[in-house]
Amino acid sequence: MVITDAKRGDIGSTSEAYAIGHLGHVMIGNKRLSGMDSDFMTVNPYFGTDGVKPFVDVCKEDKKGIFLLVKTSNPSSGELQDLEIDGKPLYHIVGEYVDKWGADCIGECGYSRVGAVVGATYPQMGKILRGVMPKSYILVPGYGAQGGTAEELRPYFNEDGLGAIVSSSRGIICAYKQEKYAKYGEGGYAEASRQAVLDMKEDIASIF
Fold this sequence. Notes:
Blueprint: E1 3-8, H1 12-22, E2 25-28, E3 31-34, E4 40-43, H2 49-62, E5 65-71, H3 78-81, E6 84-85, E7 88-89, H4 90-101, E8 114-118, H5 123-132, E9 138-140, E10 164-166, H6 170-173, H7 189-205
Parallel strand pairs: 1-4, 4-5, 5-8, 8-9, 9-10
Antiparallel strand pairs: 2-3, 6-7
């Protein structure tokens, strides 16, 4: 798997087991065995440093990466994530921790193995968080079915045109249900999904 959207997170010992199971490996005798062997996974940072550090440690050892939930795309995310603490919204504080946790695992291209999830449905917050986490890749859900548009994606990228991975799930998987792709019919769901990907690629490229 490339990105496992598992949203794992727990006390230290359990986080370590999740990290090894999804990203890492174990040695049995002289055999190196991996479980899910994902390249990246999403992680819930709510347990703080001792819940996140095991994931970071495995990322360093196995050259993998994580995306920590910072500002999610769902409508009620603000009930908790927008709460202010000492004048700063919680998502801003979590973003600062993302930058801190990833500071000692910067790769050759200048980006950290520790990234963040920031929804496309909140572009103004995305712009703020891009500044807070300049070395982190941002996984951006919410494009398409949840209402995020290409123009709203611009703040998530750095000036080098990198720094963001845009995710669309229902907009691609269920493309055949959209009027735009109705000509393919239910039997042509694969063709509809392929065309939706091509259209998304062109749409995103148009902002640069």
